[in-house]
Amino acid sequence: MFQMTVHNLYIFDRNGACLHYSEWNRKKQAGISKQEEFKLMYGMLFSIRSFVSKMSPLDMREGFQCFQTSRYKLHFYETPTGLKFIMNTDLSVPNARETLHQIYSTLYVDYIVKNPLCSLGDPLQSDLFSARLDTFIKNLPYFNPRAA
Amino acid sequence: MTVHNLYIFDRNGACLHYSEWNRKKQAGISKQEEFKLMYGMLFSIRSFVSKMSPLDMREGFQCFQTSRYKLHFYETPTGLKFIMNTDLSVPNARETLHQIYSTLYVDYIVKNPLCSLGDPLQSDLFSARLDTFIKNLPYFNPRAA
Fold it and tell me: Transmembrane region positions (chain B) (predicted)?
């Protein structure tokens, strides 16, 4: 039986700069520096999205949403302004788009966009944002810190 | 509910078989280019998925989904790769792909003395049986999507 959990979360701006990264339950690191990991994550998802559209047997509406393996699931959500949210969870989470959209519309917009001290494009340096994000994730119905 | 298409690749990346049942949009490139792109991209995706995994992996990449279709991937122990695009109602087609391998591929190709492993599959019997198998799947509807 899988324990429900969120492993980690990346936020990228439309240029590929990683604005934020948090992890809650990650048992294995990528074996490369964090900078390299962010570039790989962004670049690979860029390629996946392009491939998914090209190979689609139907006209696409919104594009790539998630992939899953035998042990985890990666969810992807892009806002109309090009901000990209990527979250790894366990397999019990069907589709985290709504969650990622909430993170954008309630946390990012409120604590970053509306914050005069935060310049768009810089890594997010708001402790309030990080704290609220942490609380939000831990309150998700599918989050269990001792899982996986 | 529907199955759009199915690719079978051998362990070297050669496309052994391709069938489509319900494809409304082509890729805009030749079939040869499309096969290379499919194999190459899935190779990269599988490598990426393992590297970025927050946990130790058991079996690796299985499927991805978009707002309109889902791609399922299954690799046999001998390195044969099955890729099937379906609509979103199919949760996980691994079992189906494994059946295609173990009942159709093994019976009509591996056990066929006229078929050399590594060549594109030229058995009409295989193609016909595969077509029947797909059309009998509970989630196949030819007028769908």
Answer: none
Contact by Cβ (8 Å): A19, A85 = no
Give residue ranges of A with CB < 8 Å to any B CB: 7-8, 23, 25-28, 30-32, 37, 40-41, 44, 47-48, 51-52, 54-72, 74, 88, 148
Report the alpha-carbon distance of residue A16 to residue B14 in Å, rounded. Answer: 34
Residue B43 belongs to domain with CATH number: 3.30.450.70
| pLDDT band per the 50, 70, 90 thresholds, residue A148 | very low
Indicate the SS3 state at residue B16: strand
> pLDDT tens digits for A86-110?
999 998 888 899 999 999 999 999 8
Please tell me whether the interface predicted TM-score (ipTM) of this complex is above 0.95. Answer: no
Tell me the backbone φ, ψ of residue B129, rounded to 5 degrees.
-65, -35
Nearest chain A residue to B3, by CA: A57
Which residue of chain A has the CA closest to B43? A48
The tally of domains found in chain B comes to: 1
**Does residue B55 belong to any structural domain of this protein?**
yes
Full residue range of the structural domain in which residue B74 is found: 3-135
Tokens of B78: 């001998």
Three-state secondary structure readout of B132-145: HHHHCCCCCCCCCC
Any domain includes B140: no
Beta strands A84-89 and B61-66, pairing class: unpaired
Residue of chain B whose alpha carbon sits nearest to that of A8: B54
Q: What is the pLDDT of residues B101-133, one digit of tens each?
A: 999 999 888 888 888 877 788 788 889 999 999
Helices A34-54, B31-51: inter-axial angle, 10-degree rounding? 150
- Report whether B131 contacts B12 (CB < 8 A): no
Residues of chain B found within 8 Å of residue A74, distances taken between Cβ atoms:
49, 52
